[in-house]
Structure formats: structure tokens, C-alpha cells
Records
---
Amino acid sequence: MNLINVQNLDIGYEGQIIAHNINFKLEEQDYLCIVGENGSGKSTLVKTLLHLLKPISGTIELNGIKGSDIGYLPQQSTIQKNFPAKVFEVVLSAFANQSLWPFYSKEQKLKALNALEKLDITHLKDKSFKSLSGGQQQRVLLSRALLASRSILLLDEPVNGLDAKATHNMYKLIEKLNKEDGISIMMISHDLDSAVKQAKHILYLGKKVFYGNVDEFANSKLYQYLQGM
Amino acid sequence: MLQIFDQIILYLQYPFVIYAIVVAVLISLCSALLGVTLVLKQFSFIGDGLSHVAFGAMALAAVFSLTNSMIFILACTILCAVLILQSSQNSSIRGDAAIAMLSVGSLALGYFLMNIFATGPNIAGDVCATLFGSSAILTLSKFDMYLSIALSILVIFCYICLYHKIFAITFDENFAKATGLSVKFYNLALAIIVAIIIVLAMNLVGSLLISALVIFPALCAMRICNSFLNVTIVSCILSIICSLIGIFASIIYSTPVGATIVMVDIVAFIIFYIISYVKVRI
């Protein structure tokens, strides 16, 4: 079953089209990489998928899920660099929308602990978020995204600003979540080579829009052209 | 030293002093609560802008010699808070420029009106009193006092109820939006609460000094605390302590209340700065 079906989608701001005629689908346990140059509409597509932006035309069909069921890992903002918050506070904020009461429930705390455990960062629970390394911070934010959803993760350049080792670990972690836990992954990336290594499907945004499985993409003229650049 | 205590005890026998202190404590608590969020969201200037708006509104109220001026000032400030927020989301005029425009405009309007429709012989004195606070906190009318207490409690109640949502939209607006939280609504609620606090705090420190009350306790707490909850709690306690010291000092040495409180805040900031500096070195 397809979790997400996107057809003839035009996206952009205030009537101005940034990317035109996007078609793709996300299957269960799929791993989709969305690649393209800066300004090609990757972030706009993310916002549209999360229902933060209305599509200009075309349809986004969600099967059995709501827009808010997509676990989102946004790019880090400058505000977070000096933000005084404990890791556990950050992770629990995934539930902020679910209670009116100023306390989180036992169940929510348990879920948060489980998410930390899954990503091997239980020992960071009471650490200050800003004191962590880039890779650790991304893991914390990833566990928060996991809490918001069990079935789909939408990752916006998750290895941006990480060093080589942290990047490698992050990719392995995402792969594990995809293979072992059966979570469907949508990842924005501008690292073409690792996208081809990691993903099952590729969506390329640019003057030409490409969607297909990795082998098709790797054998396409587009890929050869992009590699030559 | 004993003399000072005797003097304080003497003052505490007057009910209006007790009321003033209760109101001051509540106002300090509220401003510190919201200060943390405003500083972290990099919205400190909104408080500053709104305080000038409140000054303009106060002058308008004086011109029309309204009896319940506080309600009128409150309405004007809330309206402007909403306008500022809208404009910062709308890109036609940049947020900071819009705020600067509104704040300077109302400052000028206030002074202009106060001069044209002078209600007393001492215009400069009146203007100074509204800008830098006077003994207003000691001369609050019964109605204003009850209104202040009610509004403070409302603000505290709202903050506690919305605590996690405020954390979420402060830490990561995009993620909060993605989980279905109505960030627009909570930003609006935040702006209204800030407007209420500004109007309340105007009674305590005058409109030019309000930002100090909002910003200093938060900045102090952020120097030494690691979690959001601790920052919030420490900044509240600190704000109350500073205000109390400021009020008593101003009574004893007959200095202006607002400026004295801000002086104490500055000293507190320096102390916290040194503490954090030493902590890092050790």
C-alpha cells in the first residue's frame, strides 16, 4: 500500500511556482531521497507535505495517516544553539500538542524514554541540549521526530554540518530505523552519492523532475550529467 | 542597619505599602515568566516597542481624562501587539522596522498630546513620571490595584497551562507546526499576554524601563541554568527579589522606584555573569 501518493503537484509561494509537475509515491518501508540544487524547491516540498503550505495545484493523497503523523526532523535553527533546555524537555515537546495540562503523563514519559533508548542516547537525558555535539543533537531531534510518528520520518538534511564520522553514524541509524523498524523514510539531501547508496527511490527536483528507483536513477543520463558537474 | 529595618517595618504598617508590594511581586513574576520566552525567541524589542505604545495610549487617556485609563491603555497596547505580530509575519514591512515605526510614533504622539492638552502646570514632570515611573505603584487606585492583581493571576494561570506549548514554539516553531500545533494562535496569545504585562509593569517602573524588568531576570537565569524549567523558576525568583530590594531601597533612600529596581537588576546580572564565568573556568 502506498502511504503517500503525489500527483501533478505544483508547489511555491503566493501563487509563484517553484517546482512544477511533481509525481511520486511513498510505499511502506520505503526509503526515498529527495535531491536537487539549492532553490529547486526541496524545502517548499517539505512544507507542502507537512500541510504548512497549500499546494498550488495537484494532489497529495495520504493513506491512513494524517499530516501530523509524519515525524519531522527540521534543519536546526540558530535559536537552538544557545537554548537552555534539557534533552528530555526537548524530546517530550513532541507531545506538546496533546495535553492541555502542564504535566506530561507517565505514558508519554515512558514513550520518550523508549525513543531515547532506541537511539542509544539514554545517557544524555539530563544533559543540556546546547552542550551536545552536532551528531548528538541530531539524534535527540530524531528521537523527538520518532515520537511524533511511528510510520513515516521526513528528514530535512539530517547530516548538514556533521563531521564525517557523525555523518556515517547518522546514515547507519536511519538505515536501521528503515530496515529493522520498518519506518518509511523521506530524506532531503544534497549529497547525491550517499543518496544513491542509501535510498530505494530517488526524487530529483530541478529543471527536470525525475522520480524512479535507485537503479533507474543511477543509469540515467541525468545522473551522469550531475556527476560530471 | 537596625534603623533601616525599623523604617521598613514602619512602612509596612500602612496598607497601601503592603498592596503596592503585593502588586509589585505579581508584576515581577509575570514579566520574568514571559521574559524567558521573549529573549529566546529574540522578541525582546517587541516589549520595548509596546511599552512606548503604552506611553502614547496613556497620554491619550489623559487628554480625554478617562477615569479608567488602565483599561483603555490595555486595549490600545493589545491592539498594537496584534498588529506588530501580523506585520512580522507579513513581509511587506519588515518586523523590526514596523515596531520601530510604531514605537517612535507613539512616543512622539504621547509627548505631543501631553504638551498641547496640558492638564497640569508641570508638563516635564508629568512626562518624566510616565516614562520613568513615579510613585505610581504607591498611589494606585483601588480599582487599578484589583485589576492588576486579577490580570497578573490570569497571566500566571495562562502561562502554566500553556507552558509546554510555549516551550515547543519557542524551541522549534517548524516542528511545532508540523505536529499540528497552531503556532499562529499561540504567538497571538503570547503577544496579548506580553501587552498585558507591559501595561501592568508600567505602573511599577514606567514605560521606558519595562524592558529591563522583562529581560534582565531571564538573562541572569540563562547564565547559570541548563534546563528551560530551571531558567523559568530562577528568573521568577530573582525578579521578585530584585523588585523587593529595589522598592525598599527606594523608600529608604527616596530614590525613584523604577530606576532603583533596574539598578538592582543590573547588579544581579553582573553577579550572575561573574558566577557563570568562574564556573566555566573551574
---
Amino acid sequence: MIVEHGFEGLSMHKLAKAAGVSVATIYIYFRDREDLIQQLYAEEMQKMVEATLRDFNPESHFDEGLKVQWLNRMNYCFENPYSMFFTEQVKHSPLFDRSNIDTRFLHAMHLFVHRAIERNEIIPLPVEIYWSIAFAPLYQLVKFHIAKSSMPGRPPFILDEEKINLTLSLVIKALKP
Amino acid sequence: MKNNPDGQEFILVFRTNINRKKDVKSLSPVLNGCSEIIKWNIDLSDCDNVLRIEATHPDHEPVIHLVKKAGYTCEELTD
């Protein structure tokens, strides 16, 4: 509902109707609309973190670790497209509280990058630039895939293993010393 | 700590016409001064302007009385 109609389109009435419960029931569990959105966000982020860290070893070689990360993140987005769009909406809204980010996730990402820098597998970069090179291309391709369209006049974009490997190799090349 | 020896809490929800921060402010002393109310808030972002109360008793009537006396409409939210 939030993904389709935005936060303003979310009324407790519509939500209660869609969920088949009473408005009063929703207010037993949530203080107000903001509380509901924040709890939903925390829950979605938790699921995303669990999925992202599956079989991921922060001590692994950068190339290998990044591939695990990409596949985990991609599969999570494909299985939960609403979750991806919803968490993005929250991140770009005043409701977003940065202090709620899972420390286990941050710690794993931090360790992974710093070990890779120590072993001279990648160059040190400001984190925003690192993220924009290491992960932003993946999310853009995932969006093309989910939207089933990319550029005007192009056939539907399918993100398969071959395209993942091609992009990943370019990303890794860009981050090498 | 409010006087609530058995620690039981009841959540009461009401539909009101309190839709501005100004009104919430003017109602604050009334609700804060009520010993049976543990916590309260009003959801200004929703169309029902829901007043949500955590109280030591399950009765809606005393709250409705309080809010109406302060000049606002207030009814139990049931649907």
C-alpha cells in the first residue's frame, strides 16, 4: 500500500480494511502511523540484513565476498521487491532514523572493506564513493529487471548470471589498486 | 510511577476532532493530570485523529467525558 500510494496514501482505515482487522486493533499494536511505518521498516531491514549476511564471510577475499554480497542482495530484492521500494521510501523521508541501523551489519561491512584494503585488494575510498561503485550498479540493474524495462526502445532487461558476472568484473576492476 | 498496583494496562482508542498541534497542546494538561492515564498520544497524521490511551482501567466513558469537557468531540473507536 505504501509502495503504491506513498505515505500520505496510507490511512489506518484503508490498512485495517485491507488487513481485515479493525482500526482499533491496529492502534493496540502501533502508537500512530509513524510508529507503524518505523516498526515495519525495522522489520524489513532485519530481514534484509539476515539475507545479505547469509554465507558471507567478512574475512574473505574481496572479489569472492562481493560476489556473495551481490547474489544475496539481488535474490533478496527479487523475492521482496516491495520491501526494497518501501525501505528506499523510508530512507528518503524524514521518518528515517539512522541510529536504527543494525550494528552487526555495519560491523561486517566495515571489516570486509578494511581487510580488503589491508590486503591491497582494493583502494581506500570515501565510503559514499565506495558504495556508489560497489553496490549502486547492482541496485540499478535490479530495478531494470524488476521494472521489466530499461531504456526506451530496449527489450525487457533480464539480470542473469552472465550479466551479473560481467558487471561484477567491471566493478572489481574499478576498485583495484 | 503512576498508581497502578497490579500493573495492568488497557489500551483505549477514540475518534476525535483534535487535528492541530495547538489542540493537542491545550488538551495536554487535562490528560496529563489524570492519574488513570499512563500514556497518551494523538495520531494527527490519520483522518480519524485517533486519541490512543494507555490506562489503568478499561472504561472509555471517563476519558470521553474529560475530552468533551475540554471542548472536543470524542467517541470510542470500534469499527
---
Amino acid sequence: MRKLLSLFIILITGFIFIGRLFYMQVVDTSFVALSESNAISVDYDYPQRGYIFDRNGELLVSNQPSYDVMAIPREIKPFDTLEFSGLLNISKERLENQLDKAKIFSPRLPSVIVPQLTKNEFAYLQEKMRKYEGFYIQKRSLRDYKTDNSASVLGYISEVTNAEVDELTYYKSGDLIGRSGVEKQYEDVLRGVKGVKYTQKDRFNREIGSYKEGVYDTLPVKGKDITLTLDAKLQAYGEELMRGKRGGIVAIEPSSGEILSLITAPSYDPDLLVGRKRSKNFTKLWYDSINKPLLNRGLQAMYPPGSPFKALTGLIALEENVIDTKEGISCHMGFSYGRSARMGCHHHASPLSMTPALAQSCNTYFAKSYRRIIEKFESSEKGMDAWNKHLESFGLGGFLGNDLPVGQPGRIPDGEYYNKWYPGGRWTATYTLSNAIGQGEVLTTPIQLANFTAAIANRGWFYTPHILKEIDDNPIKNEKFTKKKQTTISKENFEPIIEGMFGVYEYGTAKFLKIPGVEICGKTGTAENFTKIDGERTQLTDHSIFVAFAPKDNPKIAIAVVVENGYWGSRYAGRIASLMIEKYLKEEISRTDLEKWILNNSLEEEYAKPFSGESFLINQ
Amino acid sequence: MGKSSEIDWITILLFLILVGFGWMNIYSASLNDASNGFFDMSQTYGRQALFIGLSVLLVIFILSIEAKFYERFASVIYITSLLSLLGLFVFGKTISGATSWYSFGSFSLQPSEFAKAATALALAKYLSDIQTDIKLIKHQVGAFLIIFLPALIIIPQPDPGSALVYLAFFFPLYREGISGVYLLIGSSLISIFILTLLIGSIWVSLAIIGLGILIFFFRRNKKKKYISYYFLIASIAMLFSFSVNYIFENVFEQRHRDRFNIVLGKEVDSKGIGYNTNQSEIAIGSGGWTGKGWTQGTQTKGNFVPEQHTDYIFSTVGEEWGFLGSSILVVLFMCLFIRILFVAERQKSQFSRIYGYSVAGILFIHFLVNIGMVLGIFPTVGIPLPFFSYGGSGLWGFTILLFIFVKLDSNRKNYQF
């Protein structure tokens, strides 16, 4: 027994030690992180973000260096806060406040104390930083905008949130990420890959060499440059024309689906969202609920398309063989249907066949065509579905699938939609007759308008509109944008419609907008719209809408313009479309009076009406 | 009868493995940019290599001396050792706060490292004397005097760690038949000590009273006179608890209190006194299953653990060799201790057996206190890990201690009553 006690004590001790070792080394994994945090420092080398060019190689966005003053709270030695805050050009209270916040975030991890100093501020600070232990300067690159327009297309970058740091492993606190537009859409392409360097530190936090001879270190990879399909000159011109108006312009090159111009108005200077002023300006833009400058109206605003939609109604009617191009339909300032319903029309010659009916924008002709389409089928529901399928093939009633991060699907009703409205299927074509002329339940975004115009210009096909042309000078290969989409309408049926759109300029609703020497096809639209004022549905001045493409043969540009509450399609939208086409095709404006009219006319008064609190007149 | 000599190669093999593995870890812990080959004498690991080389010469010397010499001259060796300790008060050199060193030029010796072996020899000689009966109080006092005399000289140097080692002689004393009461008293005092620090004297006293009442009612011997014994023991226990409290609060300095508080988990101070323990725990804990690899420990390279090549050498093992390496090392030490006990038991000579138990006890208590400290189980006490920690005096002290026993064992067949 006495012999065994010593043995017993030795064995017990050994097992306790091994147990303790097992717990510390295998079970409790927190020591690993502690070891890494105090013995290895990780330094990131941020690459330049890729440049952004327009389709003609004009530089739109480059970079400027920016310097963040960072601090690691636990490494800060006592220092003269008053002197340091003076150097940083902030108040002493603000510095102390920032340091407290950093401490709460993490004593071990770096936090931004003063973000985004300019080069000059940095130069002044640089030499004096050494005195302040625990502080250092992290170089990053910020955007430098070479243009004052296209903000909604280009987007902006800002610091990642803490939630994003947790979710996306690539990003560390203080990193920048694309927030909207192409900056968001092509974040992975533009940002490049940051380099990382692991450094072994000793207990005084001095660097004593690279960790494991640098096997884990990587070099930064520069972000790729991208070329957009935008035409910067056209873009700038469009924004200028839209000054004082609200709405959107989308111009597409029909042969490729490339977006030549994507304008939303009102807009803002992209430089407002760079650097230290970003957060203040962003708040201002965000809370502007009247102008909504952050809303991309070209992509996100859904408008009733109005008369341009008649072109589609005509196409479907021809495809479904419910009318031919010769048949004339008479119209006497509108027509009556149902028991007491009447659709009005304006004064024009009668009867008209398809081509002049489109040129003169006869409501009666297309309402009757629509009715025949729906009634061709055994039920209204099936007729509605057939109509819907044709329109969907033009990219309407659903997301287009373009490469911009925001969008809206628009609305093209089908049979089921009306079955919900009128349970039991007891509805007929006349119930939905307004759809024929782009009112009723139909809603489209400007980019959808431009896209179907491009499809008409191409006589039956289109490429999905896209904004990216090249990455590092290599043309895009994404099949989504390089594969033709075919519409359900046969090629030959387009000719009478295109002739009608040509007639709009020759003898129709836009004959005063002809561009000398260019064969141009278009369609005006004047869309009724409503808003709610104090809970009451109130009609506002009609939206001025215009779609056009030119030249008639071998089209180079298809464009859609929507000017909110601009009244007649030819008044604002028609003029702007005409000027845009001239600018793009001829690069010079011959009709300076027209240009002057647009530049000098603003709709601010019209926009102020619903907020005036008084009753007001519309459509003046 | 011819003399035969059988060296215990298992012990020697364990010794070589420990010394070799120890040197590898010292190399890693002291590696720096100025390193210039394994035997660079300007470097810690280079000097340790020299110390190991010299210890081999020491081994040959020890083994070549007649075994009888150690028994016969035990008293002389012991007295010489005591004198060398006393001499420190006159000639001693102070290194890091402790006057424990004799200095010979650039070279220093720590006599307390050698006093352990001397005390073991003296105790073995005294207990194996035919006239000594350990069951008699008189002789127990004699044995305690031999053991605690060097400890008493060492404490005021101050070097409480080295003094603590003398508790190791409980191993041979118990083996040779001292009463188990001492063990009971010892462990009771330690329990009361720790509990007092943890929960305070009041609760400890209540617990003692409660325990006393329980034992009283369930006692087997119903004689009345025992009541006064219970009363006496309980009173002493409570008095001890209160005095511990008093000593802790009023006699101990803050740094001593901190050391206990950290182990008891009452305070977390990772920057000040707790820094060593905290960093050594981080280093060991970050080793994982298999460690970061020899010379690849980030904590070791960054010199986060102070004294890593001496008292905290085990943290290097933990970090670079992981759970696998460090538990194998623990097992190796256990093998050595058990081998020594086994060899001690096969001795015909009582002197050799007592000496063997002393060797096992001394090595074990170093192992216990050192690794316990590095793992954060024990308070911080500066005491080296045998054969592992850097230092010439330590290595030679342990080598002498172990190889005298190897010599005694090799001579066991020649022993005559």
C-alpha cells in the first residue's frame, strides 16, 4: 500500500495534465484566434478600382487616392488629444467620441477615426503621425468622376456595413463596395482583388519578419477597366434637355441592344457621393420624396405607354389575321361600345386603313382591332392570354433581364388577371378596351418602350438591352446579351406599322419634328395618369411620351422619352426624341429654335400643382 | 564475490530523450536573427548545448566513482552543501532579485540546485541507519531537520520555489513508514488554505463545524473523551483558516496575492502579473492537435511568453508540438518517475531505496509545480522543468541527482548486509 501511493499521485497528476492540455488545445478553440490576433498582423494592399469608359473611349470614372486615419484602441499610448484633434482638423470632443466608439467596436481591430482625407490633408499629417502610437493611415482609392451626369447609371461606392462584413467574407471594415448602377452590378469586375501580407509580430508589437516566409501573402490584382455602351455626349445632351422636367430617356442601338443613353430626371452630380461629403449629400437625396433623384425613372418608373402601344396592337392584329392593311375603319370623333361607353378620338379623315390610322393615332381603329383579337378566341380569357403572349415576346410585362441592378416588370394583363377582377369569367373584350391604346391596365417602363421600339425597328427581333460593352477591351460574351430574341410577329407584318410610324413624321402627329435628311419613324403618346391627393384619386396633366427610331432602314437608334405631365406626346417628349436622334446621328443640331424651346421650358410649375393645396387645372 | 555492474539503460534513454527534446525547444524559443549555427555560444541554445556536453562528462565522472562513496560521504556532502548555501549571504550574486548565485567571471552557479541531491543523500543515510526508527517522534524531528534546514536557508534568498521542492521528501518518508496522519494534516491544511481564499474564513469555519458534527454523530468509537479532541481539532482548523486570511491580507504583498487570485480565477489581469500565465495559455492553446511545427510557433517567435526558454519552456512544446507532442512529453516524464520508483523498489539496500524515492519525489515536484504553473493550474512559482529548462546549474543538479541513483542501482548486486 505504501509503495503504491507515490505511483498513484504520479499517475493522477499525469492524467490531470493531459486532460487540461486536451481541453486547452483541442476543445477550447478560442486560443487560436487570440494567438493570431496578437502575434500576426494582417495588412491589406488595396488595388485600384477599374476605370469606366464610354463607348467611344471617353473616360467617365477614374480614381483618386484617399487616406483614412485608423486606430487600434489597445495599441494607443496616452497622447495630447487637443494637439492631435487640431492636426486632424476635428474637435477634441469628436476625436474622443470616435475613440470611444472604436473601443466599443473592438479593442484589437482597426477602426476608422477620420475617413477620407484629401491628398493635401494627408501630406500635412504624414510626418506627424509617428508621434501617435496606435494610429496609422490606410490608403484607399476613391472615385474621381470626369463627368457630372449619368449618376444613376454609374452608381456610387461606400463603406461596407458591419452586417456585410459578417456576411461577405471578402470585405473588412472600412472596405468600399459598389452600391448602385454599374458599380454594384460589376463590383466583382471593378474592385479587383486586394493583396494581403501577414507579418509576425513580437510582444512589443514590433514587426519581426513575414509570417511563414510569406507563403500566404498575395499581391493585389488591379480591378478591370470596363467600357459601357453609353454615349457620353448623348447622355450629357439628354440630361441637359431634361432639365426642369421629370421622366426618363432610354436610347438603344437596335442592331446590338446596347444602351446608348439612359437618363433619369431629375438627377444629381455623381461627385456629390464621393468622400467625406457623401453621407450628408446622400441623406439629402434620399429624403427628397418629391423629386426622388435616387429613383431611376428610365428603369423603375412604370407609366401607361399610351398611343405608341397602338403599334403593337396593330402588329398583333395583323399576326392574328383579324384585319388586313387595306380595310378602312370609320371614326367620328370616337366610337360607342357596350351600353353607354364611348371612346373619344380627335379630328381626322375617315375611314382610315392601318398605316394612316397609326400616323393619325386613331383610337377607334385600334380599339376595334383589339376587340377582334380578343374575340377571335373562344373565350375572352384565351384571347387575353394570346394577346399577352405576343406582348411578352417584346419584353413587356416582365423584367427585361438587363445588367443594371434595379428595374420594374411593368404590367401586361392576361386572362387570369381579369378573372380576378370579374369572378366567374363574365367579362368581354369591351371591358378591357383601353388596353388597346396603351391605357387601362397596361404599364411599361421607359426601357421597355425603347426595347419594343428597337424590336419594331429590327422587324421582329431584339437583343436584351445592356450597359456593359467591354471588360479590359474584351467584348462581352454573356449569351444573355449576345443571343437574338425573336418576337412572335412575322417580319412582313412590320412594314405597314413602320410605314405608319414613318407617316407620323411625314403627315401625322409629329410632322413639325422632322429631321432634315433623316428618314425617321416614331409615335406620339399622351397618357392619362392619376395620383392621390388627400386620399382622393385626382387626374394630373397627361404624360408626354414618344418612341422613335431612325433611320427607317438600317436603324441606328431607337429611343423612348417620357416626360411626366408634359401633356401632348409631341410637345415635350417628341421634341426631345427628335433632338436626341439628330444629336446622335448628325452630332450637330440644325433646329436651334426647337432646342431653345426645350431648354427654356420647365415643368416645375406643373409639378408644384398637386402640392399647392389648391384645386388646379390640367392639360393646359 | 566479484563486482558486477548493471547500468539501467531505460532510465538513461529517458534522460537522453528529455535532454535532447528539451534542447530542441530551447533552440526554438531562443532562435533569433543573430543565430549562427546550432553551437553558437553567444546564443542561449548554444550555451545549453555546451551545458549538455559538460553534463555528459559529469555522468561519466559520477559513474566512475565507487558506489560506496555516496553513502559513506553523505554527511560531508550535505554539510558542504549547507555551507555553500550559507556562503551566499556573504559572497552571493543577485540575479533577477534572488541572491542565489556564485559568480565565476561570466559564469554563475546556483548551489540550491545541488543541495537537493545532498539532502537526499543525507536523508537516505539518516533513515537507513540501523538505529533510526521513523515511527519515533524523536527521529521524525531529526529527519525534518535534515530536510528543512536547506529550505530555511533558501527561503530568505529569496527563492520560495526552490524551497518548495523540499516537500518532495514526503515520498521517501511515507514509503519508509511515517504516519499517514502527516498526509492527512498536510492535505487538510492545503484544502483549508485554498477554500479560505476562495470563499472566506466564515464559510470555511461553518463547514468545519458542520463536518465535525457529522463525524461526531456517525463515529464508531463512542467513548466520551473524544469530544474534546473534536473540539480541539475544529478550533485549530478554524484558527488556521482565520490566520490564512490574516496572512494573506496583511503579510503577503500584493504580487503574492495576485498570483493566487489569478489561479483561483478571482481576478483577470492579462496585462500585469497575469500576463505570463495568460500568454503561456494562449501559446499552448493555439497549438491544437499537432502544433504549429518546430520553430514555427508564432507566440514563441514573437517572444510573447517571458522566460520561455527557462521556466515557461513547456509552452513552446505546447504551441509547436500540439496536444500530441505535449501529452507525449507528460507521458515520458511519468515513465521516468515510475521507472525510478520501480528501480528503487528492487534495491536491497535501504539507503539506495530511500535515495531513489527522493529522486523521484524531487523530479516529480518540479514537474508538478512547473507544468501546473504553465497550464495555469498553480500559482506562478519560479521553478525549472527538469532536463528541459535552460540553465547549467539546474541541468547539472538534476544530472547528479539522477546519476548517483543510476550508480547506486548498478551496484545493487554487490550490496551486502
---
Amino acid sequence: MRLYFKYMSILFKSQMQYRTSFLMLCIGQFFVPFSVFAGVYFLFERFGGLPGWTFHETALGYGVVHMAFSVAECFARGFDAFPRLVVRGDFDRLLVRPRGTVVQVLGSNMEFTRFGRMLQSAVVLGIAAGGPDVGWTPAKVITLFLMIAGGVIVFCGICILRASFCFWTVQGLEVMNIFTDGGREMAQYPLDIYAKWVTRFFTFIIPFGAVSCLPLMYILDRTDGPDLMYMAMPLASLLFLAPCLLVWCIGVRHYRSTGS
Amino acid sequence: MNAPLALLKMRFLTGLQYRAAAAAGVLTQFFFGLVFIMVYVAFYRHAGPAQPMTLEEVAAYIWLQQIFFTFIMLWHSDYELFDLITGGGIAYELCRPWRLYTVWYVKLLAARLSACALRCLPIAAVVLFLPEPYGLSLPASPEAFLLFVAALLAGLLLVIAISMFVYLSVFWTMSPVGSILLIAVAGEFFAGMVIPVPLMPDWMRQIAHLLPFRWTVDFPFRVYTGHIGAQEAIAGIGGQLVWLAILVAAGRWLMGRALRRVVVQGG
């Protein structure tokens, strides 16, 4: 863990060397998803609502998912850029060092310009939390943080899985974007508005539902069943992370260098 | 064969090599299209069918958007051109006996055409046969289809003329980020890429109608579904050509200015 923070501070310092460019990118990152949120807002203005969901409730789920996505993009960037590491053969260097590969790859790249995006998600969360539908209690606040943390873990898991495939294909697999970008686009709306098979896939296979929709029910006081179960739901993301890490470990053993 | 045409053909064939990327693109586009339509299905279930567009028209709008994604997205970044400017390669370009604006325009056109040639048919073949309400309906009439093709092509030429300004701006900023990115995002929004223009609130629709962006996405797709009638469509294509003339003229003028004081970077 100490090593990870060391990586973090070095990368942060190096990115701060280009301060103007850094700020511009941050501002850009703030506004890019903004147009998506504006789209959601205008659709609600036009249609009045979704079956069973008001604007503020949807915005809460949207904020959680986008926050999780941007945090994951910031800190799991190393896995995102992993194909380059394999193609250039630089992964060899990581293997000879006496530390775990996961920490080293995580530390190989971080994208701090995603702060802009996090800020935007925080604004959305603020708007949503100030809405009329929620009576906040400490337990609900904890659930909200659990949801975000769970979301980060899910997105990281997908990133690790995608990177693991590089061990076999060398090239990055763009198809996996369906689960990162596509998963984000999809989970920004309440999952139960989709067709049944989609909802099931994204709850039981890739647990977006477990980190956004179901705990959200608890925050909105719509549970039927023990509250604790809904609160603990985001922990299911750990169940998802485990097989991803397993695939990674198998992949590392399978690795053949490409570099020269 | 003259130079721009030969270049168009060459670049088109180069673009066709990227088949794996196209396959991934097809799947992604397909998934996104389905998700978007499901969202609209839910919205219509809540609010009833009395809207400025029917659900069927929205579905067609979304599928066409996915099918012709490489035609209409503003931000189809060609890093080769950026590198020419920031890496000093521009000096070689300037030595060659051709008009730079035309050459770049043709390069961008070829990239979009080849990307679309690989992607559009597989998606179209599937979505035409999807069940209601997820499928793409047939065009409103044969005339509507012909007008749609004309409007789409005019829109394509227009998109490239607009995106050219992004490349030109790099002459001044040296990096394609920040404010330029914002213009691209706003442009895509006003083009109807995020939500269809007819579903926007009135005041926003009025802004969209003043800008050139909506002619590239919103207009051709609504001609397809018959949401815009034949007469209006013909007038609209005239409007597209006027915008095209204005933007190309402005782009050329700006490029002339950029090249007069161009600084060759790198060594």
C-alpha cells in the first residue's frame, strides 16, 4: 500500500508539470459528461418521468455510477493502458521486480484529469441528494458511499478482466468497451426499466444492479425485506472482483514477452 | 485521375484494412442502440405516445445514428493530421503542389467513408429485422429514401467542413484539447446526437435551428422517417449546401491565414 501511494505522488507530480494542459483537460472532463446529463434532464422535462422513478431518484443513481466510473478511470488507468505495456514488452520489467504485478500495473499510470469528471458527478449527486424524495440518515449516507465504492470495484474488475485478455491476444479488445462505457451508459438509468434479460445480466453476472439500483431502493425507503441486506448489497462487487483477479493471475503465468 | 480523387481511393482502401476495429465498433454500436431504445421505451411507457415524435421514429433515429455513426460524429480525430502540425511534418505537405485544404478534406472524407463501409451493412442487416419496437422501420416512401441519401451525403460533407475547424485550431493552440473539445461536445449536442432535436425544450430547439450542426444528424434522419416532408426536405438540402459553401469558404480563409504565419515545429 505504501508503494502504491508513492507511485501516486510521483505520477501526480509529473502530471502537474504541464499545469495549463492539466487544467484545460480537467475543465473538459467536467463538461463532456455534462451534455449527457443535460440530455437526461431534458428527457425528464419532456416525458415527466420514468415508470416508478422521478428525476431526482434517477439523478442519484446517475451520480453514483458516474462517480464510480471516474474514480475507477483515474486510478485503474494502468489497466486501461495495459495493452501498450504488453506490446512494447515493458511488462517484463514489472515481472522481475519483487512486488505484486497488480500494484505495479495500477501504479504505472493514473489519470488525474478525471478530477473534473468526479467534480461533475459530485455536483449531480448534490442536486439529487437535495431533492425532496430522501430523508437522509447516517445509515443511508454510509450506503451511498458503499455504492460508490462498490461501483469503483466493479469498473476496476472489468478493466482488469479486459487487460487480462491481452495476455492471449496481445492487442487490446475493444469489444470490452461495451462493459465499461456501455455499462456506464446503461447503469446511469435505473436498471429495472430495461428488458428482463438485460437487467438480470447486469445484476447477476456484472453486478451493476447490486451497486446502484438495489441499494438505491433502501435509500429511497422502498425495500421489502431486511434493510441490512440492501445496505450490504454493494459488497457483491467483491464477489465479482475475485474471478477477475483470478483470470489476471492465470494470464500472468501465461505471459510471453513480445518486446525486443 | 486527378490527385484528390486518387488520394480518396487510396485512403479508402487503407481504411478498409482495419476490420477488427470495425467488428468491435459494430458490436458496441449495436449494444448502445439497444440500450438507448430501451430507455426511450420506458419513457414512452410513462408518458404515453402523444409526443413530437413517435417511438417508431425515435427508434429509427437512434439506429440510423448508430449505423452512420462514423459519418456524423464530429470528433473523428485523425491524429495523423495533428502530428503533421505539432511534429513539423507540415513543411513537407506545403512543398507538394496541391491545395492543402482539399487534400485534408479528402483524407478525412475517405477515413469516414471506409469506416462506414465496414460498419453500416452488418448493423443495418440486423436491425431491420428486429421485432417492434426495437427494429428500424423502412423509410417512409421511396422518395423519402432518395432524399435521405442526398441529405445524408450533404450532411457528411458538412460534418467534415465543421471538423476541419478543429484541425485548423491546432495551428494556434498546438494541442487539440480544452476549449476545442467543448465546442465539439456542444456541437454534438445541438446536432441531436444526445437526444433528438424535436424532443428538446422549445428554447433549446430554437438555438439548435440557428446553428449548422443539426443539418448533419437531425435533418437527414427525420427525412428518412418522413417526419420532415418531401417539400421541406428539398428546401432543407438547399440549406445544407448554403452552410457547406459558407463553412468551406471560411475554412479556406482561415487555413490561408494559418499557413501565412505557420511555424514549423520539431526538427
